[in-house]
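Q&A log
Question type: sequence-to-structure
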Amino acid sequence: MGFREDALRARREGLAAARAGRPPTVCPRFTDPRLTLAWVRGYRTAQVPFDAAQSRQEVTSGAVPSAAHAL
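Response status: OK
Response body:
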């Protein structure tokens, strides 16, 4: 299998781990750091996306950003 197929599989596995509620520490130890990055990107895809509009509103109002935005 080529790198592209391996990277897509790693990304899908990361996404599946996040959706199953498993911690990010279950990321397998790949021999290629690019595969680890693909897994982490897949995992992160399942997380709540950053809301830039809300962040700008908090900055202009002087509010402290919530913990969800600290990620």
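Response note: The chain has a mean pLDDT of 80.
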